[in-house]
TrEMBL record:
Keywords: Cell membrane, Membrane, Transmembrane, Transmembrane helix, Transport. Its main location: membrane. It comes from Tunturiibacter gelidiferens. InterPro entries: EmrB-like (IPR004638), MFS (IPR011701), MFS_dom (IPR020846), MFS_trans_sf (IPR036259). Residues 16-523 form the Major facilitator superfamily (MFS) profile domain. The keyword Nucleotidyltransferase does not apply. One of its GO terms (molecular function) is transmembrane transporter activity. GO terms for cellular component: plasma membrane. PANTHER family: MAJOR FACILITATOR SUPERFAMILY, MULTIDRUG EXPORT PROTEIN EMRB-RELATED. It is found in: Cell membrane. This is DHA2 family efflux MFS transporter permease subunit.
Amino acid sequence: MNATVGYKPKHNPWIIAVTVTLATIMEVLDTSIANVALPHIAGSLGASQDESTWVITSYLVANAVVLPVGAYLGTIIGRKRFYMTCVAVFGISSFLCGLAPSLPLLLFFRVIQRLGGGGLQPSEQSILADTFPPEKRGQAFAVYGLAVITAPIVGPTLGGWITDNYDWRWIFFINIPVAILSLFLTHRLIEDPPAIKEEVKAARRGGFKLDYVGFGLIALTFGSLEVVLDKGQQDDWFSSHFIVSFLAVTVIGLACLVIWELRQERVESKPILDLRLFTRRNFSVSFLMMFVLGFTLYATTVLLPQLLQSLMGYTAESAGMAMSSGGLATIICMPIVGILISRIDGRYLIMFGFASIAVALFHMTSLDLQMSFSYAAVLRFYQSIGLAFLFVPINSMIYLGIDPRKNNDVSGLSNLARNIGGSAGTSFFTTVLARHQQVHQTYLVQNVVGSSQQWMSSVHALTSSLQHGSAALSDAQRGACLRIYQSLEAQASVLSYIDVLSMLAVFCACMIPMALLMQKPPKGMQASAH
């Protein structure tokens, strides 16, 4: 039976799935497409490199604010109306980002862009959950997963190509035709199910009371958390009063948010966050797994391209091409997982997914600076297989046993978990990389001493190769020492990348037994049945 009893969409469910996925691809792509264009943006708008990073930070902060609120607003004003409003705001703000004459205006329009785009992912997920019957919901989430997992991988490559061949402003202008097409198709094909329509009517009869306090606490808490995660390593974490202040605001805001939202339930008012969902074991475990999935996905998406560009001389476009093998693995595996989820216990697919990622990450620790382009592509391909086997089952299991009327709340919180996990993963990667690089460099330097025969032999060999006449002996010796030091720095960096991969592998391995804590799906039903 369908998620909403007696409800069947008027149009083909797969056409609806493609329609809502269109805008999601556009929005998720923008989380990473601007990263490679930051130097061009800074130069064009007369800003420093550090100032230009707020183009990314402002986007993440606005995203963290709107994700948990989207489900609430969709229930009050209608999910279709909310979704179309989000698409329109995203399209208009993208156009204004492309026209921005200064960095402050670009940041302002970027925040507006994310406020519109942040509601698209949870809205699509809840639309798919209501549109498809339980036996086909896994396949629908596979389509959604293709957008969410593949788009961040494609983003840097596409952004680099557009910036190199045209202008950075076109990374925003390309959203406009997609937004127009999405609005047209949504208006013609999408409709709210009866449960949503009843909730909208009930909200209007009740005077349309918005939980302003809850909204303010969410903005304060998750906005501050994103600033901490994005700027922590850059400002040296707890040695920075700026970071400590925002962390304090995050902790206090979270405590107040929990107390306020639980109070809202006691007074029989609709809370902006349904925290009672965490009393359900399946939801809580799935929420944690979605956080770890986002943590691993974004950390590894940043890790490999950065290694290829900073240590092996790859361009942004060529590094992106190496990463594209991950998108290929996702395209191949997602439909397969969508079919398997209706035949195999979702918990076993999750266990296989985390085990596959853990093994792939341990295998990636074999990387070195002599690896070929094809080897880097194969490493990414192996790792992305496990990602495909996680996204669909987790998104299906998280709905198990949940009242269909809470689909919006479930989708909002699950997307929040993945996005906060992504920010935490990126922050973890940059911090561990910087700290461990210093540690490894300290240990390696201990071998660079005059008493080391290998060191002296290397210096003499390089000096001979660099020397051009007796007068250049001192310059050749300095050049030899410089090259050895650069090689030492590179090796320390590689060892720190390996440390990050090892830690991520352990995190994923720890998730394998967690799947057994989830409720077993009813016999004869797939994981996403209610």
